[in-house]
Design brief:
The complex is a heterotrimer of chains A (233), B (52) and C (223).
Chain A (H helix, E strand, L loop, with lengths): L7 H24 L12 H29 L2 H33 L7 H21 L4 H32 L14 H47 L1
Chain B lengths: L1 H50 L1
Chain C lengths: L1 H20 L1 H20 L4 H34 L1 H7 L4 H31 L6 H25 L8 H25 L8 H26 L2
Helix pairs in contact in C: 1-5, 2-3, 2-5, 3-5, 3-6, 3-7, 5-6, 5-8, 6-7, 6-8, 7-8
Classes of the chains: A mainly alpha (233), B mainly alpha (52), C mainly alpha (223).
């Protein structure tokens, strides 16, 4: 039984991700200027937004994977969906937690109904619901099918939620936060974009790992089944 | 002020590492199971060889 | 024509079943009224606060009572084995969806018709105006549409009906926000034009959600 060689693509991706994240980190602390009104705490913003973006993007991938599964019925689409949910859930949780940690010193409260933070929280709730749904179904085929349907319907409501929440905040601005008060200089924009790019790369790396893990688990299950059959005979 | 900055970045690292570690750990367990399975298959093949 | 007949048949069946026992609508109604009281006591809603909170409490109540009806309606379907029978017959999947959804909407509508005057009296707001009725209809359509789909999913899980609120509520958020804001705007003396933005959002939500639910319902009920 020959063992497969080292996972070169995985190693390269991991390396690139590490470099990208470190570069973004460097930019956040050394390149981006100190924000006028908020001070250094504002530096949370870059990775916070990057996490929120990845959380949303991962949800989009799950949405596409859901369509793929319903269209084709192949297990690999389901693997993609569940893997993206796991990674996405982590990132969206980070987005919500860091958003809260940013809100406290800047606006004096651990929670503000700021649109981006709120929509991230909503997505977090949907992610959790998705996970609970998968757990509550035994049959793998049904699990995949129902999860696909839910992923599709749920994702479709997210842009609608985004508009509703933004509008709601515009009409009823938080007494605490007022409007979005942060002046973005070009350096800040560059740092933000780098952070988003780095985290997206990280997401892809982690997604691939998670997909490979699930495929390996599938293969193992098949192997075990075969072994039992052979021994039975 | 800085405590929140530190805490937030600690969150990034902690969660990311937790995820990476979780995936790695499950991969490790899978590999162990594969090894165990291979061993068992190897034994039964040997036994068949002896009988047949 | 065949399609409409199929939808009609399913709706008629559901209404007949409900008229026979009346258990679902009455349970929804009683629950809604109780929720109304709970909100009033918990938030200490009197006078000006009651008027301000009325739209929100109304929609929260409708939301929660709705989950009862949606779960019950789909659970009934499963118990009677009716869906399996429908699946064997050459009935269009989307006909089943529309049949169930319209039935659910009718039940929710009945509950709302009773609730509106009750709310108007208790919270001292005038909810019985055409603009509010339109918003109620739009909001209920969206909620019922996605609720029917998700109830069909939930009923097939280990947790059964309990799963529905978890699945449904996050997806109902855009409709909820829009409906409450529109209702509040109207109650405050605005015209439909004033709350046009929110109404449009509700319409958009309804269109999108009905389309997606209709397209995916078949995948939920297939075996």
């Amino acid at each position: 039984m020959r063992k497969p060689g080292p996972d070169w693509l995985g190693i390269i991706l991991a390396g690139l991700s590490a470099v990208a994240v470190l570069a973004a980190l460097g930019m956040v602390f050394l390149y981006a200027p100190r924000e006028v009104t908020m001070g250094d705490v504002q530096r949370i913003f870059y990775f916070h937004v990057a996490c929120a973006w990845v959380g949303f993007f991962a949800f989009f991938v799950t949405f596409v994977a859901g369509i793929g599964y319903l269209a084709r019925g192949e297990r690999r689409w389901d693997i993609l969906a569940l893997s993206s949910v796991e990674i996405g859930l982590t990132f969206i949780t980070m987005a919500v937690v860091t958003g809260s940690l940013w809100a406290r010193p800047v606006w004096g409260a651990y929670w503000t109904w700021e649109p981006r933070l709120t929509i991230s929280a909503v997505q977090l709730l949907i992610y959790v619901a998705y996970g609970m749904l998968r757990t509550a179904i035994e049959s793998p085929e049904r699990k995949a099918r129902f999860a696909a349907v839910y992923g599709i319907v749920a994702f479709v409501t997210v842009p609608l939620s985004w508009f509703a929440i933004r509008w709601w905040r515009t009409i009823h601005p938080d007494i605490l936060t007022g409007g979005e008060g942060m002046a973005m200089t070009p350096r800040m924009v560059q740092t933000l974009l780098t952070s988003i790019a780095a985290f997206t790369l990280l997401y892809v790396t982690l997604l691939r790992q998670r997909v490979r893990l699930e495929r390996a688990a599938d293969a193992l299950a098949r192997l075990r089944l075969r072994a039992e059959n052979e021994k039975g005979i | 002020m800085p405590i929140y900055l530190v805490a937030a970045y600690a969150v990034f690292w902690a969660f990311t590492f937790a995820l990476v570690f979780s995936i790695w750990f499950r991969q490790h367990k899978l590999e162990q199971e594969i090894a165990a399975l291979e061993a068992r298959l190897g034994e039964s093949r040997q036994n068949e060889g002896n009988i047949g | 024509m065949n399609f409409i007949r199929q939808v009609y048949a399913i709706v008629a069946k559901d209404i007949a079943a409900e008229l026979h026992t009346r258990e679902m609508v009455s349970a929804m109604l009683v629950f809604a009224v109780l929720a109304m009281f709970i909100f009033s006591f918990a938030l200490d809603l009197r006078g000006a606060m009651a008027r301000a909170a009325a739209p929100g409490v109304l929609w929260a109540t409708v939301t929660f009572a709705g989950t009862l009806g949606l779960s019950r309606s789909l659970a009934r379907e499963q118990q009677s084995g009716c869906i399996d029978g429908l699946m064997l017959a050459p009935v269009d999947r989307s006909a089943i969806y529309f049949g169930k959804a319209i039935g659910n909407l009718i039940f929710m509508g009945v509950v709302e018709i009773v609730l509106l005057p009750l709310f108007s009296a208790l919270f001292n707001v005038s909810l019985l105006r055409p603009g509010v009725l339109l918003v109620m209809a739009l909001g209920t359509v969206g909620y019922g549409a996605v609720g029917t789909l998700l109830a069909a999913i939930a009923v097939n899980t280990r947790a059964r009906e309990v799963m529905l609120p978890v699945l449904l509520l996050p997806l109902a958020i855009p409709a909820l926000i829009a409906a409450v804001q529109a209702t509040a705007g109207l109650v405050d003396g605005g015209t439909l034009a004033d709350v046009g933005g929110w109404t449009q959002l509700l319409v958009a939500y309804d269109l999108v959600i009905v389309a997606v639910s209709m397209l995916t319902f078949g995948y939920v009920v297939e075996e």
